[in-house]
Amino acid sequence: MGCDIDEIDTIGESAREALAARGVTNTNHLLKRCATAPGRAELARMTRLREADLHEWVLLAELLRLPNLNKRSLNLLCAAGVKSLDHLRDQQLEPLMERLQHAKSRTRNPQKVRLPSVAMVEGWLSNAPGTHSDVT
C-alpha cells in the first residue's frame, strides 16, 4: 500500500489535492506514476505540477521504502542533503551522523526532534544498496 503522501513534507496541500484528484494518494501510487520521465511529464500535464517537483517527491518516496525510515527521519535526511537512494548509498556513517545532528540543531525546536540512532542509520546504509531504484 505504501505510505500516505503526507509523509513527504515537501508536498504542499495544493499539490496533494492535485495528486489526489488524479488517484495519487500514497507513495506506491507516486512511484508507479512518476518512476519514468514520460510518467512524470504526463502527471505534470494533468496536475499542472512541475516535473522537477514530481521527480524530487518520487525519489523521497523511494527512501521511505527502507526499513525504519519514517517521516521524521526523512525530513532530517533531506535537511542533511540526502534526497535519494543513490545519494544515501554514497554516504559514510560518521559524516552522515554529524550532518543529521547539524540538521537537527537547525530545526525550530531541536529538543523535540529525535535523532535516529546509529543502529538505525547503519540499517539504512546497509539496506540502501539492496533496495532497487525504479526511478529513471
Report the structural category: mainly alpha
Mean pLDDT: 93
**Main β-sheet, in a few words?**
none
Distance between the termini: 22 Å
Describe the structure.
By secondary structure, the chain is mainly alpha-helical. It has 2 domains: 5-63; 71-130, no CATH class. It has helices at residues 13-21, 27-34, 37-47, 51-63, 71-79, 85-89, 93-105, 118-127. It is globular, with a radius of gyration of 15 Å. The two termini are 22 Å apart. The relative contact order is 0.15. The model has no long low-confidence stretch (mean pLDDT 93).
Which short descriptors sum up this protein?
136 residues; mainly alpha; 2 domains
What are the SSEs and their pairings?
Blueprint: H1 13-21, H2 27-34, H3 37-47, H4 51-63, H5 71-79, H6 85-89, H7 93-105, H8 118-127
Helix pairs in contact: 2-4
Would you summarize the structure shown here?
By secondary structure, the chain is mainly alpha-helical. About 55% of the residues lie in helices and about 0% in strands.
